[in-house]
Write a structure and sequence with these properties.
0% strand; 157 residues; single chain
Length: 157
């Protein structure tokens, strides 16, 4: 359990810097486009790629930190035992939903890697070949973290 916690924490903290790189790339594009009238063909797509990688690989960290957005106006008013069960139910639904996503995305991810799928844009980056496998990896990391959270939740009772 601690291994999954450490892995997700490490990945979440490591990929957070990709957002800063995306800001720098966007800043560069703004300067090139509006000051030098020389826009790039790659900055927008690279920014999307960097942010998508950070988003996909930080889900386990957010799950581990229990920091997902949630509406607590209802659960805060419920009896503690019912709120406990509702939280457990939510984690179980998450395991199944993200497990299905990982399972359904596995073949398309392998195919995207196999053919080095590209965007078809002016820059023609291999973004699909990078992001499709990361959808599977990110989903699997969240599922693993949810399973750890479920065990902890059951022990807390």
């Amino acid at each position: 359990m601690n291994l999954i916690d450490r892995l997700n924490r490490f990945l979440g903290e490591a990929v957070s810097y990709l957002y800063l790189v995306a800001v720098a790339v966007t800043g560069y594009e703004v300067v090139m486009r509006y000051l030098f009238n020389a826009p790039t063909s790659w900055a927008f797509e690279l920014t999307i790629l960097l942010c998508a990688i950070a988003y996909l690989l930080s889900g386990g960290y957010v799950t581990q930190a229990n920091a997902h957005i949630r509406i607590t106006s209802i659960s805060d008013r419920l009896p503690k035992s019912f709120a406990w069960g509702l939280e457990l139910f939510g984690m179980i639904v998450g395991v199944f939903a993200l497990g299905v996503l990982a399972w359904a995305g596995f073949k398309p991810a392998l195919f995207a890697i196999e053919i080095v799928e590209r965007t078809g844009s002016a820059w023609n980056s291999p973004m699909p070949a990078i992001l499709k496998p990361l959808i599977v990896v990110g989903s699997a990391l969240i599922v693993a973290q949810l399973l750890v959270q479920i065990v902890r939740h059951l022990r807390s009772r």
